[in-house]
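ARCHIVE CARD
Drawer: 12
Card no.: 0347
Subject: one protein chain, sequence and derived structure
Cross-reference: see card 0346
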Amino acid sequence: MDIRQRLVMAQTVEQFRATLLSAAKELAVDQNQWRERKASIHLSQAKEQIFGPNRWYPFRGLQEELKRRSKQYISDFTDGIFGHRTIPKLFSTHRRTISTPHPQVVFLYFACLLPAIAFGVLNDDNTEGKINVKKIIFAQAIGGIFFSLFGGQPMIILLTTVPLAIYIKVIFKISTELGYDFYAMYACVGLFCSMFLVLYAATEMCSLMKMATRSAEEMFSLFMAIAFTVESLRAVARSFSRNYYCVPTAGANVTNIYTNLTEAATVCTNKRDTSILYVLLMLGTLWLGLFLYNFRKTPYLTRSRREWLADYALPASVMIMTFAGSYGFSSVEKDKFDMREDIPLFSIAPILTLPWTGYFVCLLLGFSLSFLFFIDQNITSAIVNNSQNKLKKGSSQNLDLFVVAILNMFLSLMGLPWMHGALPHSPLHLRALADVEERVSQGHVHEVIMNVRETRLASLLAHIMILASAFWLLPYPLRWIPTSVLHGLFLYMALTSLNGNEMFERLLLLITEQQAYPPTHYIRKVPQRKVHLFTACQLLQLIILCAFGFSPYPFIEMVFPIVCFFFLPIRFFFY
């Protein structure tokens, strides 16, 4: 009998009290039994839970996924042509409703090209041009076309990311300190990493991601947002140290303060207006992007036009601030990315020039890097293959990881940047090809995905356009985009990635008045002390991850992917 019903049927206060005590004892017994059952899981039971009940053998998962996806390969293309309102979803710019979103090819083109340019600037600064904008744009086009043709899940979009940029910087620092050729070391690390990824795909290691929970995903997402912000602030610091502050030359013989100032004025050529404009354009890009992104919440214009402005907030803010910087401040010198014409676009890395100790260092670096690929790729795959998205063709984590490994072997040998499944581009790509309905539940309006067109055409066409842009839009007009605007794009990506991040929301609760707490489900059901304790545990893990990820010592910084990986089972075993 339900506890509430027994309480209603109580005739006296004593019966009511006895019922409460009995219910409390029953609940305590159930909780103890649950803890005992969880603690008594044997290794064989855990293996069956993770890898399934059937007999396991090497390449089992890869073989099953390849067999299943090969039967649907033709439909992956035809589903992008035939069907109700399929062509409008790919190309049309006519009036749309909530169930028929923006033209996905154009949206995906801008969503991949602009971050590729921004990451190119970041890698150019970190590697002194060894990995530059031109290399990243070509790598984005080649990788996107390759994965759209041979990948298992066509909804996944590949990009290079901030953690990969951090790791490339680590490799550059270590190669410089040890005196190794950067491209040779970079290629060896990439090949060892790909070798481990093939091993993970062959042994169905992707099944271990069942231990990962939303807690780990939110922490890693917050780490990426912090990385975006840190890299943008470092770029501002470099601009000010190069242009705003003036240090007199060492040969200047000065005797007093007046002479010092006079020498500084004559020897140094300050460009303080360049640094100030750098900050203005970066913050202006951030403000304009957020304004357009949140425009869907305003009552202005029609719903379809508000959605259109919000969807194209990223390219619109970049174009507007580029125009404002180029024409509104034409007399001020601006920082622009270098084309690095002296560095060849494609060249096979001299991997045989490394000493035997260098291969051992590359093996360690590749092993650590493989954890980063494993985590990012599988988190992206898990979000895309969520049951709420109602995909019909099944998941293919092992096949996707295998294809990413083969792709990055080629990119490593050619000295091109690595890439893997990226957020939030992959779920946005899926949502743009979906039919969405609005439903009301308990007084709240929420959107439900009804059907998704699982096609390879949108990604394939968008990356063909990026490849064409690499030939026709470089160096101009893409080089007109100031690097300050691109770092403003980083800040925009950092702040917009915080939407829906429960860890960030719970961190804000620590400085929020208790009466102003939002009526979320965990606030209503979980005691406040436990909510804050759980948040503190997550914050401690995030601080440890940032301590490794932003360490000034490259041999410490290189292990941050392993630290992140070992955070995955903490929520599974201890919370």
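Annotation on reverse: The chain is about 65% helix and 5% strand. The mean pLDDT is 80.
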